[in-house]
């Protein structure tokens, strides 16, 4: 029998239930995918806790990799046996298998393993749209990137290095700072003992940076704004420490700053564009410029423990589930 993680009420990790499911056959425009790895992302916690709405009862998870088992009528370009991944579509990736819209499935190239791909579908393509679309980096810039030792952050460290960008990262501990440096982050600010904005100004000879990528949110907002050059851009791409509320008058006072809150769905569609994003990402992987493997692997049934580890900030790199 196949299994999935579901939750019937919002709350702590203990609301997650490991249940038997009937996956069924794919209908028109659909494919059934047998998962090999399922990614765990901080956004999953937002759905579980109710910060992001979900119709209950609900599945959980947005991205996974695996093999196509069957395709429905009208599906072209995919066949049983194809290795694929995905990051768009309905919640429910925490499962051993599921039926998905074929249009969101991304073929995996030879040379990119399932375990690597599982860390890249959401996390790697997040870096792609942050660095190549939201605020397109050309090379030569100095940027500030929060949570540099996280799953997205370690990919960002490597992508910045590949672009010739000087990355200033933040990390909560010296251990995490060393991990970020080892992945290409040139300067790391340890937030437990250093003033973020003061260090940014010191590193940049008082100029500040043109862009800050901030997935932390509430706790880092003021430091992010204080680190920017006049007319600089704050990319608020997450709220792991709490929501962000900005008085627009403050943006003028800080230097006529820009703020954007991007969402993947608006950058990864239509399908042709999503496939081009994936091609650029996989080119870096195949060339050895980006290396990524799971730092922690949990059985699907232990999804609650994976969430507890992520929420406690005990993790670095990517966490995945294995059905």
From TrEMBL:
Which SUPFAM superfamilies does the entry mention?
A: GroES-like, NAD(P)-binding Rossmann-fold domains
One Pfam match, by short name? Answer: ADH_zinc_N
Q: What are the entry keywords?
A: NADP, Oxidoreductase
Disulfide bond found in the keyword field: no
Domain (Enoyl reductase (ER)) ranges: 11-321
Q: Is Transferase among the key words of this record?
A: no
Q: Which domain of life is it from?
A: Bacteria
Q: Which PANTHER family match?
A: QUINONE OXIDOREDUCTASE PIG3-RELATED, QUINONE OXIDOREDUCTASE-RELATED
| Designated name of the protein | Quinone oxidoreductase
Q: What is the source species?
A: Ramlibacter alkalitolerans
